[in-house]
Design goal:
By secondary structure, the protein is α+β, with helices and mostly antiparallel strands. The protein has a single domain, classed as Nucleoside diphosphate kinase-like domain (Alpha-Beta Plaits), CATH 3.30.70.141. It is about 50% helix and about 20% strand. The protein has helices at about 10-15, 15-30, 40-50, 60-65, 80-90, 95-100, 105-110, 125-135, 140-145, and strands at about 1-10, 30-40, 70-75, 115-120. A four-stranded antiparallel sheet has the order 2-3-1-4, sandwiched between helices. The longest helix has 14 residues, at about 15-30. Bound molecules: adenosine-5'-triphosphate and magnesium ion (MG). Adenosine-5'-triphosphate binds near residues 61 and 112.
């Protein structure tokens, strides 16, 4: 069993119908080990997106992610990381709309920055990202016991 970190981004959290739909979709596909609404601070966002520092979209990504509450979840399933990324679809929303019209980013994304959701890209990133947003979560016990 694998675990991953999912984030529903601020513009979707503001839309209660969209948020409810996404929670239903997630509940049908994954075991939710923990979840919470969290207003990501500048400090947390900088740690979280450290790998993107210096890229042209970095500042707009920071501004967006701290603009309001997000909804963070720790998900578990077989092949959880890839499964969640497949449900999210391509990073770029206009590509998502064209090539995967039913994916989350096609349905709820507004732009390449406001692309509705985040998913860890590897087991290592998942553990790092979970430790940032859920510092109290004991990931090793969960991974070892499953
Ligand atoms: P995520 O890490 O959010 O799951 P990803 O792995 O598909 O998405 P990354 O390359 O890690 O994409 O980019 C992280 C985030 O930065 C994206 O989700 C998006 O919000 C933003 N981003 C990435 N590329 C662009 C871009 N070309 N223009 C604007 N924003 C971008
Ligand atoms: Mg990424």
């Amino acid at each position: 069993m694998e675990i991953t970190l999912a984030i529903i981004k601020p513009h979707v959290v503001r839309n209660t119908v969209a948020l409810r739909n996404l929670k239903n979709l997630i509940g049908k596909n994954f075991t939710i080990l923990d979840s919470k609404q969290v207003h990501i601070t500048k400090e947390l966002s900088e740690r979280f997106y450290n790998e993107h520092k210096g890229k042209f979209f970095y500042n707009r990504l920071m501004t967006f992610m701290i603009s309001g509450p997000s909804y963070a979840l720790i998900l578990q399933s077989q092949d959880c990381i890839q499964k969640w990324r497949n449900l999210m679809g391509p990073t770029k929303v206009y590509k998502a709309v064209y090539s995967h019209p039913d994916c989350i980013r096609a349905l709820y994304g507004l732009s390449d920055t406001r692309n509705a959701c985040h998913g860890s890209d590897s087991e290592q990133s998942a553990l790092r990202e979970i430790s940032i947003l859920f510092p109290e979560f004991k990931a090793t016990e969960i991974v070892m016991n499953n």
